[in-house]
């Protein structure tokens, strides 16, 4: 009888798990279908309003001058032996000083850290990477090549190639997700973790499933699961959707004095208009559902989480919830009036908060007098 009950229990647990998995993927594919219908309506409306320009866009062949600004650092390349991929990065500051490594988000590239490269090069070896599939870094063609474990290993390999075994790791948006995962899987590598507008992956998963408002704000995650169509929607009308992300009142940079210049915006379009560039960026999203929830989640490094109050894509309540997964010092700063593009929107505030966090617990080691 006991054996029978045990077998029935195992069968019930297995069946419950299968039902949950089926429900999970049904939700994802159902929401994908809904987002596709909305996108098709938008495309149709664009064709009606702009029949001659909807399907016109320009590949920016020549990089704008701001991408060659020597005050930002030197353009370098590294080929990782294990993956065979070549990565582009911009570096400044003396070799041998502590490494501060910057990881950008979507749809960005190294240039999003320009204010921080200038700020921290006096006391650090600062490196802003073009992550796999972005900018001048190699762009693997298969979706499978953008699995989270590969993206995390990329960062570990880059740190080691640069001659370091530890770094101050700074990530924003998707770069924040990778930074969280680096701290989880390679705690010995992360001296301190600094994340901008990116919740711990477990917080995001749990919160989105229980808050329809966040699920709605994250609808692009589901739309981006489709092949080809998202690339088209981001390209029509000469990349109007990409421009709008950074410039519109609802999603763009809030601080008037920090709005992207025409040249800044062209820098982004130069990077994202290249053949295959949008596919590489979108492939990050196309792998995310297959690896969540995480099997490991604890963060042992000290963490600074900076959050723009006016983030149009992520709800602020997720920021405080990150504390549950951190087994070290945790500092959270909500920056009033700031958008999702925090390090570009409020660079002076962001830089000051990072300096303060870095100095905490450093004893007599003085990185900068504020």
TrEMBL record:
Residues 98-344 form the AB hydrolase-1 domain. Keywords: Hydrolase, Membrane, Transmembrane, Transmembrane helix. It holds the Pfam family Abhydrolase_1. GO terms for molecular function: epoxide hydrolase activity. The keyword Transmembrane helix applies. InterPro entries: AB_hydrolase_1, AB_hydrolase_fold, Epox_hydrolase-like. It comes from the Eukaryota. The chain crosses the membrane at residues 28-48. PANTHER family: EPOXIDE HYDROLASE. Belongs to the AB hydrolase superfamily. Epoxide hydrolase family. This is Epoxide hydrolase 4. The gene is ephx4.
């Amino acid at each position: 009888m006991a054996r029978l009950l045990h077998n029935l229990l195992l069968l019930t647990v297995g069946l419950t798990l299968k039902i949950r998995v089926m429900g999970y993927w049904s939700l994802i594919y159902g929401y994908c279908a809904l987002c596709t219908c909305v996108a098709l309506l938008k495309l149709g409306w664009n064709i009606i309003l702009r029949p001659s320009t909807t399907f016109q866009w320009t590949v920016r062949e020549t990089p704008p001058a701001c991408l060659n600004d020597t005050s930002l650092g030197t353009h370098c390349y590294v080929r990782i032996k294990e993956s065979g991929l070549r990565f582009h990065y911009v570096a400044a500051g003396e070799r041998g000083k502590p490494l501060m490594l910057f990881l950008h988000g979507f749809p960005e590239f190294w240039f999003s850290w320009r204010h921080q490269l200038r700020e921290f090069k006096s006391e650090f070896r600062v490196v802003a990477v073009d992550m796999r599939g972005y900018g001048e870094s190699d762009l693997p063609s298969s979706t499978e090549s953008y699995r989270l474990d590969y993206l995390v290993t990329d960062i570990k390999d880059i740190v080691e190639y640069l001659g370091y075994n530890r770094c101050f790791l700074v990530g924003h948006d998707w770069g924040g997700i990778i930074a969280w995962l680096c701290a989880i899987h390679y705690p010995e590598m992360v001296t301190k973790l600094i994340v901008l507008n990116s919740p711990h992956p477990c917080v995001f998963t749990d919160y989105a499933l229980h808050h329809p408002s966040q699920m709605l704000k994250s609808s692009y995650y589901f739309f981006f699961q489709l092949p080809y169509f998202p690339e088209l929607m981001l390209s029509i009308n000469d990349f109007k959707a990409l421009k709008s992300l950074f410039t519109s009142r609802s999603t763009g940079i809030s601080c008037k004095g920090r709005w992207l210049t025409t040249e800044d915006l062209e820098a982004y379009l130069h990077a994202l208009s290249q053949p295959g560039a949008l596919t590489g960026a979108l492939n990050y999203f196309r792998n995310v559902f297959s690896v969540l929830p995480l099997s490991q989640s604890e963060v042992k490094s000290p963490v600074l989480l900076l959050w723009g109050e006016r983030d149009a894509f992520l709800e602020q309540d997720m920021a405080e919830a990150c504390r549950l997964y951190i087994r070290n010092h945790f500092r959270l700063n909500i920056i009033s009036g700031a958008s999702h593009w925090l390090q570009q929107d409020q660079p002076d505030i962001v830089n000051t908060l990072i300096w303060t966090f870095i100095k905490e617990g450093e004893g007599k080691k003085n990185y900068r007098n504020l």
